[in-house]
Design brief:
The chain has 187 residues and is of the alpha+beta class. It has five helices and eight strands. The chain is globular.
Length: 187
């Protein structure tokens, strides 16, 4: 049976909202997303639906090449899973995307996490709660605590998650683009 990799992306975009969260967490990287490709072409999370409006939140397919991420710092982690687990996680992300209008951003849950209160809202997630929910679909990535209490920096500790890169997101994307061009020229 083959294996695949799933990627967890932690970012700091430098927005007012992420600066506010940093005050409470004391951590640099306070937004979590998940991707099924190393080049981060398809990146999923819960966050701002409209980057200009911090109050319109929900399920988002993020464009990490957009202006919001232009100066972002990041960490990219990988989790090795079976083909079957990979498929289940992709199916679950696709379900969220197809039904995105039914989901909201769990702002109340985000505040509950600060006080270590488990708060589950129906059809509402914050970023790390969503990523934890997707990772729970596998046996390879175990979440040791309720996903409604997961902070982005705690995703680093998820079983079989390992650091691939830490630094500028734009540098990571440029390196991946160069790697892709090299692979294409060799093939």
């Amino acid at each position: 049976m083959g294996h695949r990799q799933v990627f967890v992306l932690l970012t700091d975009t430098g927005t007012l909202f992420t600066k506010l969260i940093r005050i409470f967490t004391g951590k640099e990287l306070n937004h979590a997303s998940i991707s099924f490709d190393e080049g981060l072409l398809d990146v999923y999370s819960f966050g701002r639906i409209n980057p200009a409006n911090p109050f319109s939140g929900g399920f988002v397919k993020e464009d990490v090449r957009a202006n919001l991420f232009a100066n972002a710092r990041c960490a990219v982690y990988a989790c090795t899973v079976t083909e079957q687990e990979y498929g289940r996680m992709q199916d679950q992300a696709a379900f969220f995307e197809e039904n995105r209008h039914h989901y909201k951003y769990n702002l109340l849950g985000l505040f509950a996490v600060l006080f270590n209160w488990e708060y589950n809202r129906s059809n509402a997630f914050f970023c790390s709660e969503f990523v934890g929910t997707i990772l729970k679909e596998t046996n390879g990535c175990r979440v040791e605590k309720p996903v409604s209490l997961l902070k982005p920096h705690e995703l680093e500790k998820v079983f079989s998650l390992h650091l691939v890169y830490k630094g500028s997101l734009s540098d990571y994307l440029q390196a991946d683009s160069a790697r892709t061009r090299l692979d294409a020229s060799i093939a």
